[in-house]
Recover the amino acids of this structure.
């Protein structure tokens, strides 16, 4: 294995171990999506009767949306670990070591993507328990997971960049409050795009959250729209690259300011 | 003639003197964005296997110098090298040669003692049985073996500091940087740390560069001291050499009431031939004399004659504080207080 890859695995391991020591956090990632599923599932259960609503079961419609929304919510806090490391001096300890700089970034992003995957699988299981069925089969579920991980990693990289630039936990709170819920409501998480007002439909087209949700919705249909999936996954990948680049610039800015 | 022809063919990039040193800097300047000049041309030389102390008040430029030497920060101009390797051009090589123990503890609080140490070793390329042996040795040597499975958050401050030291040593560095190693430690933990630092230099042959704002720490540990003030080295030498340069004793008189400096100087003007390096700092008067015991009564009499009352008077052998006073024109304690207020 190359040094960069080895370092990256070592950094990921560090985060996984810390995660396993926080049982409350593990429980939290279970309970919160369950609340969303039950709450929205009950609130909007008759939405399926609306003209223009094509899905037959609201819980099946909602599950991919809650998966994406939960990924966003957990990835938004990603920068917290950088803030703690900067405050504790752990970041500088890593920087005076010969560890590859890129591995410090990629190891943390791999961990974030893994967390998103784990969380998504748990929510998927909850959705199935609550009666959701996915006609698209395994292939569509894989695509849902990939799209969600791309969005989660992109948002985590963005959160990291803000953390490196602003170095305050408050900045991440602001990010999560001002971005996550509006982006969620401006996507088809709760209602299909064709039931939205016209201007919202336009915004939704450029909303990365909606890209991931639309990809995930393909799980409902037995005839999967691969071209829609291809376009949105490419858009999400591009977003991830832009956000990763932004976080690298932020990392350089941090190093210059030391 | 023979010796000249047998010189190595490839000439070092750095000047020969700097390449033979464990740590060398030449005219190091650091200007931060916004124009703050933290270093104004710092040159130091540290010989291999010695303990070198950078002494100065907070904000003097000690930490900036260490950040440049440890590749965290780039100098605006000037050169710095570790074991002949340039810190800007060969940061990868330099990072393998140095161990760094930062001012603030850099322990990962969510990991155990052993996990902290193992990851640190892995980042330096150690693995397998070699890493395990090294971890076991260091934990035993520093009395941390019983704490190996404890989460670092539950360790005492002194133990966390030891873990910092152990992490700095895991890869057998040749030069160890200790930035304010004992700040915030209780006296017992400080004495413990001093013993360890001396032992590292003596038994392991490490070169130690230590920054401190405790005079007694530099005096106790270092073979060579550089006093740094406002981004410049004001004097460099051995603690004893620096003290020996100051002839005679120091006398210190504390005045009972505040009094204009000019009045004090006027009162002492008849003693011009006895007193040297007179410094008046608030209500504290310092001077250097050949013999403290005979000079002190005459100083007190001269002050009394001018109606200036003294509350305490002391005679002391020269200390590093006196060295500091001589080269910076102010007492060490005052300098630290002023920097702290700023």
């Amino acid at each position: 294995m190359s040094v960069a890859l080895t370092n990256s695995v070592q950094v990921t391991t560090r985060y996984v171990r810390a995660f396993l020591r926080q049982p409350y956090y593990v429980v939290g990632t279970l309970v919160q999506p369950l609340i969303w599923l039950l709450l929205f599932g009950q609130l909007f259960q008759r939405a399926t009767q609306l003209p223009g609503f094509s899905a037959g079961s609201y819980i099946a419609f909602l599950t991919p949306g809650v998966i994406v929304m939960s990924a966003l919510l957990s990835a938004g806090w990603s920068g917290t670990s950088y803030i703690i490391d900067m405050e504790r001096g752990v970041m500088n300890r890593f920087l005076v070591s010969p560890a590859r700089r890129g591995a410090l970034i990629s190891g943390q992003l791999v961990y974030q993507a893994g967390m998103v995957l784990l969380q998504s699988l748990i929510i998927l299981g909850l959705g199935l328990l609550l009666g959701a069925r996915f006609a698209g089969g395994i292939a569509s579920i894989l695509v849902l997971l990939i799209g969600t991980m791309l969005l989660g990693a992109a948002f985590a990289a963005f959160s990291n960049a803000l953390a490196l630039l602003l170095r305050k936990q408050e900045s991440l709170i602001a990010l999560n409050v001002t971005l996550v819920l509006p982006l969620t409501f401006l996507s088809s998480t709760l209602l299909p795009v064709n039931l939205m007002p016209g201007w919202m439909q336009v915004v939704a087209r450029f909303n990365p959250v909606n890209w991931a949700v639309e990809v995930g919705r393909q799980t409902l249909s037995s005839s999967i729209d691969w071209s829609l999936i291809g376009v949105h996954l490419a858009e999400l990948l591009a977003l991830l690259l832009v956000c990763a680049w932004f976080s690298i610039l932020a990392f350089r800015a941090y190093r210059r300011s030391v | 003639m023979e010796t000249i022809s047998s010189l190595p063919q490839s000439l070092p990039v750095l000047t020969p003197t700097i390449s033979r040193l464990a740590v060398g800097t030449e005219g190091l300047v650091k200007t931060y964005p916004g124009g703050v000049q933290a270093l104004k041309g710092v040159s130091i030389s540290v010989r291999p296997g010695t303990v070198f102390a950078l002494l100065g008040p907070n904000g003097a430029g000690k930490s900036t110098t260490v950040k440049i030497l440890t590749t965290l920060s780039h100098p605006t101009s000037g050169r710095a090298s570790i074991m002949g390797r340039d810190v800007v051009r060969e940061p990868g090589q330099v990072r393998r040669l140095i161990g760094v123990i930062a001012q603030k503890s850099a322990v990962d609080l969510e990991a155990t003692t052993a996990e902290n140490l193992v990851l640190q070793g892995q980042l330096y390329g150690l693995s397998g049985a070699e890493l395990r042996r090294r971890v076991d040795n260091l934990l035993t040597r520093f009395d941390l073996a019983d704490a190996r499975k404890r989460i670092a958050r539950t360790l005492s401050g002194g133990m966390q500091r030891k873990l910092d030291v152990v992490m700095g040593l895991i890869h057998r560095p040749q030069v160890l940087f200790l930035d304010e190693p004992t700040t915030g430690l209780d006296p017992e933990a400080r004495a413990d740390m001093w013993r360890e630092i001396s032992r590292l230099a003596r038994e392991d042959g490490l070169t130690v560069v230590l920054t401190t704002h405790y005079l007694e720490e530099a005096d106790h540990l270092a073979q060579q001291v550089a006093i740094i003030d406002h981004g410049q080295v004001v004097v460099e030498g051995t603690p004893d050499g620096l003290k020996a340069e100051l002839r005679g004793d120091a006398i210190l008189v504390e005045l009972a009431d505040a009094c204009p400096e000019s009045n004090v100087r006027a009162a002492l003007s008849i003693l011009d031939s006895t007193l040297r390096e007179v410094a008046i700092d608030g209500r504290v008067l310092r001077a250097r004399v050949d013999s403290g015991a005979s000079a002190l009564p005459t100083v007190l009499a001269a002050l009394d004659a001018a109606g200036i009352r003294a509350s305490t008077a002391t005679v002391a052998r020269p200390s590093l504080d006196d060295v500091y006073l001589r080269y910076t024109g102010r007492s060490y304690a005052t300098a630290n207080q002023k920097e702290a207020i700023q």
